[in-house]
Amino acid sequence: MTGRPHDPARERVLARIRRALADVPRHERPGDHPVPRAYALTHGERTAAERVALLAAHLEDYRATVHRAGAAELPELLTGLLRRRGARRVVVPAGVPPEWLAGVGAGAGVEMVPDTPGLTTGELDRVDSVVTGCALAVAETGTLVLDGGPGQGRRRITLVPDHHVCVVRVPSQVVDSVPQALGRLDPLRPLTWISGPSATSDIELDRVEGVHGPRTLEVVLLDEAAP
Amino acid sequence: MSRTYVGMPAFPRAAARAVDDAVLRANLRRATHTIRDRRAAAVAELADWAQLRTAAAAIKDRTLRHLDHYLLRLEENVTRAGGTVHWAADADEANRIVTRLVRDTGEREVVKVKSMTTQETGLNAALEEAGIRAYETDLAELVVQLGDDLPSHLLVPAIHRNRAEIRELFRDRMGAWGRPAPEGLTDRPAELAEAARLHLREKFLRAKVAVSGANFMVAETGTLVVVESEGNGRMCLTLPETLISVVGIEKTVPAWRDLEVFLQLLPRSSTAERMNPYTTMWTGTTDGDGPSAFHLVLLDNGRSDALADVTGRQTLRCIRCSACLNVCPVYERAGGHAYGSPYPGPIGAVLTPQLRGTASPLEQSLPFASSLCGACYEVCPVAIDIPEVLLHLRERVVEGGEATVRGVRTVVRPARRRALEGAAARAAGLVLDHPAALRRAQRLLYRTRGLHPRRLPGPGRAWSAARDLPPVPEESFRDWWARTRGDGAGRGGTA
Ligand code: SF4
């Protein structure tokens, strides 16, 4: 077996590396080599409202559709988005507050599919939409980050369906920058950073939306201050 | 199915052929110029680009100077999180490990997400020999695979194909690989992307094993990072039961926090975006979400040889953003295939001779595939002084000297004089479009080295403040060649 200390390839690679580094002074410890971090931790000072506005602008720049709602309007908004899409089957992971989708389901002819381990990729492929929350959003880059926490589900449920509706609580879930985002995230969780719908520039460098991930990304900014 | 670069003609011959191909040249020119302009705008958005670049270079140097330490930490943390780490000293070892791991699952096919390291090792051919079919899933890689072709750009491997050619390939070849292209396919990019979506989806949904590369590995946490656009990476990284990642040892960074530098530099430098559409980060395995088995294959394959070269070591900082390709006048004219490896352009010209040694004509000619204009250094987000490394490698080719080859310190003999003159002269002829004018300009520049400001004054400042001007190399190729052809090359020339 490989991967353990008696692996000859491992010993060989490590020995080569150590020989290659003969010029590094013996007293230099890992971490001694200086890293000047003179770069900015955020690019500009913003109020909470400006931060949210920048997030919206950057999301739209990469062709996500952005909606705003207070808690009271959210159910109607989500129902409308799913109806407009003609969604009949919608995946909803555990932890999505039931009131969000109070208007969907009964009577609307929409089947809510829970994200269970038994949900196969084939079944998932026949789902029309997915509604999730997120861990945080990054204003400067227009990025949503999902970490598998409550209301986010397994990574595959935001990948296979063609329509993703993601709810961001603003302003509390919005950070300015990538450095701030990393500081808030837990590396031991599986993380998915999403900046706009999937895209490719592989054909003569034209950005084309939608290759394998959801081709439509709708973001709802849920205003925590509104009723 | 997968061709390799083995037996490629030396750079000048391959390049001359490419230069004759008008379609290829037009495709390349249009593509590199488009991406170049967009990139400049994306970079200009960050006032602290120069500081990010300095930090990135320093983080990579910090890692490389203690690479053994950081690899052991990485191994420990990946293992603790449920992954298994394997070590491969060379390409064959890596291919054997991956083949065995796939066999152990009982599967006969794998899906792959862009991994230059597995192109470097020739994994697809090795798997095929073992009766395992590998499906490339990047749109561009798919184009390359269907066309039985070789990639020609780090980021856009099918940059040498235009949409009409892609349509033809899809129409004629998709059926042989799985779901055929839809009837009446046109060459609209959106339609071509849709055809790829349908063709690949059935493969993703049934795949049990995936092979990937990675952009970064965090020693402190054991986290791997894949940066992508299309979503095929997410498919490969999350749907299959077994994930095998083959990653060069130099992709390590010490700390989680270090990602804040690279995640700002890489998307802007490579695709000219604030952020690429998808980035996946995973640490070992997670119960109930994603693959239940994760294998990391750490690949040396010449990297420790490059590490042993104090001048060449900086090459290992490379984050494969491909910015240096898009600004390179030689790449634009010669095309990616002329470089004879998965690493084309300026980075290929310095990396390939270090990974493989300089014993054969292709590797000997690569350091000459440059006009030393310095544009590659100027755009490089990790500040690799490519002209400096090129000059250093030229010297090794011409004058011989000490080098580490497959872990052994060796004295390299000077290249044969005739072979060398041919290689260098033809490379130079190709490089220098207007030899006289360029010669004058270069001479002037080199002679006044030390007098050049690192920042442009006045109105140019806003732009150049974010980037260093290219430093002037010690000696131009022409001066160097004039000085050494009867001397350096001649001394051991008949070896
Ligand atoms: S050498 Fe620098 S510019 Fe070229 S691909 Fe590597 S990181 Fe990018």
TrEMBL record, chain B:
<feature type="domain" description="4Fe-4S ferredoxin-type">
    <location>
        <begin position="316"/>
        <end position="384"/>
    </location>
</feature>
<protein>
    <submittedName>
        <fullName>Iron-sulfur cluster-binding protein</fullName>
    </submittedName>
</protein>
<keyword id="KW-0004">4Fe-4S</keyword>
<dbReference type="GO" id="GO:0046872">
    <property type="term" value="F:metal ion binding"/>
</dbReference>
<dbReference type="Pfam" id="PF02589">
    <property type="entry name" value="LUD_dom"/>
</dbReference>
<keyword id="KW-0249">Electron transport</keyword>
<keyword id="KW-0677">Repeat</keyword>
<dbReference type="Pfam" id="PF11870">
    <property type="entry name" value="LutB_C"/>
</dbReference>
<dbReference type="GO" id="GO:0051539">
    <property type="term" value="F:4 iron, 4 sulfur cluster binding"/>
</dbReference>
<dbReference type="InterPro" id="IPR003741">
    <property type="entry name" value="LUD_dom"/>
</dbReference>
<dbReference type="InterPro" id="IPR024185">
    <property type="entry name" value="FTHF_cligase-like_sf"/>
</dbReference>
<dbReference type="InterPro" id="IPR037171">
    <property type="entry name" value="NagB/RpiA_transferase-like"/>
</dbReference>
<dbReference type="GO" id="GO:0006089">
    <property type="term" value="P:lactate metabolic process"/>
</dbReference>
<dbReference type="InterPro" id="IPR017900">
    <property type="entry name" value="4Fe4S_Fe_S_CS"/>
</dbReference>
<keyword id="KW-0408">Iron</keyword>
<keyword id="KW-0813">Transport</keyword>
<keyword id="KW-0411">Iron-sulfur</keyword>
<dbReference type="InterPro" id="IPR004452">
    <property type="entry name" value="LutB/LldF"/>
</dbReference>
<dbReference type="InterPro" id="IPR024569">
    <property type="entry name" value="LutB_C"/>
</dbReference>
<feature type="domain" description="Lactate utilization protein B C-terminal">
    <location>
        <begin position="393"/>
        <end position="483"/>
    </location>
</feature>
<feature type="domain" description="LUD">
    <location>
        <begin position="73"/>
        <end position="285"/>
    </location>
</feature>
<dbReference type="Pfam" id="PF13183">
    <property type="entry name" value="Fer4_8"/>
</dbReference>
<keyword id="KW-0479">Metal-binding</keyword>
<dbReference type="InterPro" id="IPR009051">
    <property type="entry name" value="Helical_ferredxn"/>
</dbReference>
<dbReference type="InterPro" id="IPR017896">
    <property type="entry name" value="4Fe4S_Fe-S-bd"/>
</dbReference>
